[in-house]
Amino acid sequence: MKIISWNVNGLKSIIEKGFLEEIISQDPDILCLQEVKSTEIPEIENYISYNYPASELVNLYGTAIYTKLEPISVRKGFGDKEFDAEGRVIRMEFENFYLYNVYCPSGASSPERLDRKYRFYDGFTKYVYKSNKPSIICGDFNRISAEIDAKNPKNIKGKSGFMPEEQDWFKEILTKYVDAFRKFHPEGDNFSWWPNRKGFREENKGYRFDYFLVSNTFENTLTDSYILKDQMGSDHAPIVLELNSCPVCGTVNNNDNEFCYQCGIKII
User: Fold this and answer.
1) Degrees, nearest 5: CA angle 55-97-74
2) Cα–Cα distance for residue pair 265/161, rounded to 1 Å
3) Which domain holds residue 214?
4) What is the SS3 assignment for 110?
5) What is the pLDDT of residue 248?
6) Does residue 259 belong to any structural domain of this protein?
7) Which is the catalytic residue, given 103, 121, 207, 211?
8) Are 214 and 180 in contact (CB under 8 A)?
9) CATH code of residue 110
10) Which residues form the active site (predicted)?
11) Which of 140, 149, 179, 210 is catalytic?
């Protein structure tokens, strides 16, 4: 199974420039989008679509998912009216896992916005921790997990994106979840977002704001995770997660499973 997550910073522009077609050519089983900024999204052949736009500021925020696999259930929002009005979280339930597509607030413009960001983290974490199945969380977290996730960490230290409170949150969640990209790529200079300034992307002066966080109990299902650094269209690059899954029913299995535990078909 291949899951792609991408903050498109406006889906309309991505479509007009042909970049959505480029991502679909990667043949993801599930495509999670953030900052969609649209009340309507196009249908794509062989995919089921779910759009969650902001209810008031429709030209901001919003998340969407395209999936080849039909979910058992879909929930939009996590029960907080303030953040749910911005379309920040979609949860999809499958046979043996939940998938969360999330767009976290930035908190960069003022202390009040930073406090709001912390409240989002707190509410979202409580929501996710109620899951009765392993979870995959993907999206734009608007923060780095460690100094290795920034080209120049001194430039962001003590600011939104790398505050001590944010680091404490990340350390706590990583007691229960695996940073999938770091599992396969422990080296530095791997970023997913670059400021819109001349030469920053070309010189790789960026940050890793986009993540796949996977329940520890699901770690043995992972086969790869990487960043599509050359994909243009947004200030973010798409990120990819690959898992061992059944080609018939889509159930995710441990990498040492010879047969799918759900439908029994041989997968190795």
Assistant:
1) 25
2) 45
3) 2-243
4) coil
5) 67
6) no
7) 103
8) yes
9) 3.60.10.10
10) 103, 140, 236
11) 140
User: What is the rounded end-to-end Cα distance, in angstroms, of the chain?
Assistant: 14
Tell me whether residue 142 is annotated as binding.
Answer: yes
For residue 157, the model assigns a pLDDT of 79
Is residue 264 included in any domain, yes or no? no
Q: Is 52 a catalytic residue?
A: no
Q: Which two tokens stand for residue 129?
A: 């921790």
Do 253 and 246 meet the contact criterion of CB atoms below 8 Å apart? yes
DSSP summary character for residue 240: E
103 among known catalytic residues = yes
Tokens coding 54: 């902001």
Q: Which pLDDT tens digit goes with each residue over 237-253?
A: 999 999 998 766 778 88
Structural domains in the chain (count): 1
Residue with tokens 């790529």: 185
pLDDT of amino acid 84: 97
Q: Is residue 268 part of a domain?
A: no
Task: Classify the phi-psi angles of 177: left when phi > 0, otherwise alpha if psi is within -120 to 50, otherwise beta.
Answer: beta
Q: Is 51 annotated as a binding residue?
A: no
- Asked if 242 contacts 4 with a C-beta cutoff of 8 angstroms, the reply is no
Evaluated on CA atoms 259, 178, 100, 188, the torsion sign reads negative
0.70 surpassed by pTM? yes
- Does residue 251 fall inside a structural domain? no
d(C-alpha 21, C-alpha 26), whole Å: 9
Q: State yes or no: 220 annotated in a binding site.
A: no
Q: Which residues, in sequence order, are bridge partners of residue 74?
A: 92
Helices 111-129, 164-173: axis angle to 10 degrees equals 10
Question: Is residue 185 annotated as involved in ligand binding?
Answer: no
Instruction: Assess whether 185 carries a catalytic annotation.
Output: no
Which ranges of the chain have pLDDT less than 70? Answer: 109, 247-248, 268
